[in-house]
Amino acid sequence: MTTFNDQQQKDLIRDRFTSTAEVFGDYAVSYRVKFAESLMRLVGARSTDRVIDLACGPGTLALRFAREVRRVVGVDLTPAMLARARRTAAEEGLANLNFVLGDAQALPFDDGSLDIAVTSYSLHHVPDPTRMVREMARVVKRGGRVGIIDIIVPDAPGAAEAANRIEKTRDPSHTHSLAQRDFDQMLAGAGLRLVGTERADNARSFDHWMHVAGWHRGDAAYIETRRLMEATMKDDIAGFHPRFEPADPNKPDEPPDIAMVNPGIFLGAEKI
């Protein structure tokens, strides 16, 4: 049964991604296409495969997979994201996919009815990531594949706490980032055998990272997130590798941007 706290988190996710549907969608669909291609290779996507993209957002994975597989269904909680995904699919002339409103923790599909289940950058938002991974495993057939892209935190003591404090300040719908051991345990507990792992560290600027979350310089969330990020520069405990960019000579009164890395991971697994 969905608890009140679960519902609160889902409402928060829907509110956040409704407000950033366009700016986040522009970034995710264009820039992350190379991530989708890497995940397709990792899960061995084939032309006969039936695929589900959980928490699909603007269609980051679904739009690219649809060019290579038989059929794709994208599932997401946020109508604004689904509308964005449908619009892009129509513009690109993709007819072998559809997008439906739904909960990635309770999928309306029969056991073993699909070949591949994938998701990108969603597990750190959902109330119960273990339940979501189990749903992914449930709906794929034996020998079917599961693919995950997500952010990752170092295993060092205190790393997860520091990283999650920054992430939650930037985006209140963030729940918690996972470490490698957490992913390994979830996959094994869902009856999945890990077949491939790749790091997906994403170099970017702090200002752009905040921009796609809907924040700009002067916003309270921007100021506090930056303060927390700068506090980790000395020991890099959160794993973002932050450093100041050279000052902009055209803006001498403004602090410089921060170069950073979003530590990420690609996982491919097979149902045993």
Write structural notes for this entry:
The chain is of the alpha/beta class. It has 2 domains: 4-153 and 172-202 and 262-271, Rossmann fold (3-Layer(aba) Sandwich); 204-259, no CATH class. It has 10 helices and 10 strands. The chain has helices spanning 4-19, 21-31, 33-43, 62-65, 79-91, 129-139, 159-170, 180-189, 206-211, 220-231, and strands spanning 50-54, 71-76, 97-101, 114-120, 140-151, 192-199, 202-205, 243-244, 258-262, 264-271. Helix 7 packs antiparallel against helix 10 (220-231). The radius of gyration is 19 Å and the shape is globular. The chain starts with a helix and ends with a strand. The relative contact order is 0.14.
Name the features.
272 residues; alpha/beta; Rossmann fold; 2 domains; seven-stranded mixed sheet; 10 strands; 39% helix; globular
What layout of secondary structure does this protein have?
Blueprint: H1 4-19, H2 21-31, H3 33-43, E1 50-54, H4 62-65, E2 71-76, H5 79-91, E3 97-101, E4 114-120, H6 129-139, E5 140-151, H7 159-170, H8 180-189, E6 192-199, E7 202-205, H9 206-211, H10 220-231, E8 243-244, E9 258-262, E10 264-271
Parallel strand pairs: 1-2, 1-4, 2-3, 4-5
Antiparallel strand pairs: 5-10, 6-10, 7-9, 8-9
